[in-house]
Inverse folding.
């Protein structure tokens, strides 16, 4: 998606930050279907295999659970390139990402978990405890160092006023309930329409049904000055929005992992993030309009917000990158790391 104009051509943000890019690998098939998603994975395996043939890295660092990450790890297998994985051990019952994440654990050699409970699950999958580390989530490091935009700059970015405070909404395809994705989206949009609340929407990811979601959002926002649809806010603007909105609504992982740092109420819809560790700012709700209306009313109430005073984000303290760099630097590479052994858990009785 970094290389796609349809999703904001965010590779430019990486270049503007002065980060050198060794390779740009075109992967998206351009098809909004299950077959297209499979072809995207195939394109990505081929692209990384070609890249590794030209210049094999010392170690491959992968974050999360996207299909592109699985493809990169698959390509690394035949080159015996060690893999380090961030955010293993987590659960997202409603998405294929759940299977991908656990598959990446078995393809990886060093593990950087966000919490101890997730690290325990990685060990349960038979991984060497010596290579399972609790570092926190590196996404929170941005919050500690970021130069946040003020409200006026954000209003220019999104093209609508932020007074009164709007909702921030992202709805991704529910890949294990693909046939229900649009119905769930429509339930959310009906709830927002009934409440008549200003809302800033961001694009979904490039999973099947993503383009249909974008089309629905374009129609929903069209001709309204209190609704905005933004392809990509970028890190600075996205996290700055979290400081100025009334609540988050949708099914994005950012509502689970980062919003707690802002004591921001979140209405999490459906099963996509099912299984993740939650802070008390999360209100889980079924994808039904009436239930979503009630949840948004609760989330935007003074009483709910007051109850979040002193909230601590369970996903870390904003120093994950320092720990990860230290561990990458000090972990010996070589055959003993790549030749993994399954570690059985002790049997009781």
């Amino acid at each position: 998606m970094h290389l796609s104009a349809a999703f904001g051509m965010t590779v430019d943000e990486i270049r503007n930050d002065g980060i050198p890019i060794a390779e740009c690998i075109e992967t998206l098939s351009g098809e909004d279907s299950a077959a297209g998603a499979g072809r995207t994975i195939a394109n990505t395996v081929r692209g990384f295999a070609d890249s590794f043939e030209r210049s094999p890295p010392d170690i491959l660092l992968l974050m999360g659970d996207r299909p592109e990450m699985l493809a990169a790890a698959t390509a690394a297998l035949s080159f015996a390139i060690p893999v380090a994985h961030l955010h293993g051990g987590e659960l997202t019952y409603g998405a294929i990402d759940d299977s991908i994440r656990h598959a990446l654990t078995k393809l990886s050699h060093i593990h950087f978990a966000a919490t101890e409970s997730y690290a325990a699950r990685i060990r349960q999958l038979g991984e060497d405890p010596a290579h399972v580390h609790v570092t926190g989530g590196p996404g929170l490091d941005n919050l500690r160092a970021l130069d946040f935009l003020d409200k006026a700059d954000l209003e220019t970015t999104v093209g609508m006023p932020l007074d009164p405070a709007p909702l921030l909404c992202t709805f991704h395809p529910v890949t294990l309930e693909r046939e229900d994705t649009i119905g769930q989206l429509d339930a959310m949009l009906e709830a927002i329409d009934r409440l008549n609340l200003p809302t800033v929407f961001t694009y979904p990811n490039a999973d099947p049904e993503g383009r249909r979601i974008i089309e629905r959002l374009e129609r929903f926002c069209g001709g309204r000055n209190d609704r905005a649809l933004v392809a990509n806010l970028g890190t600075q603007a996205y996290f700055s929005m979290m400081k100025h909105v009334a609540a988050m609504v949708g099914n994005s992982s950012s509502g689970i992992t980062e919003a707690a740092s802002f004591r921001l109420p979140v209405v999490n819809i459906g099963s996509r993030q099912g299984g993740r560790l939650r802070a008390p700012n999360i209100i889980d709700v079924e994808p039904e309009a009436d239930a979503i209306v009630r949840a948004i009313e609760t989330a935007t109430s003074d009483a709910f917000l007051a109850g979040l005073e002193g909230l601590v984000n369970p996903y870390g303290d904003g120093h994950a990158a320092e720990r990860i760099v230290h561990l990458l630097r000090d972990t010996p590479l070589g055959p003993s790391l790549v030749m993994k052994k399954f570690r059985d858990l002790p049997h009781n009785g």
About this structure: The chain has two domains: 5-137+317-338, 147-306. The domain at 5-137+317-338 is CATH 3.40.50.2000 (Rossmann fold). The radius of gyration is 21 Å.
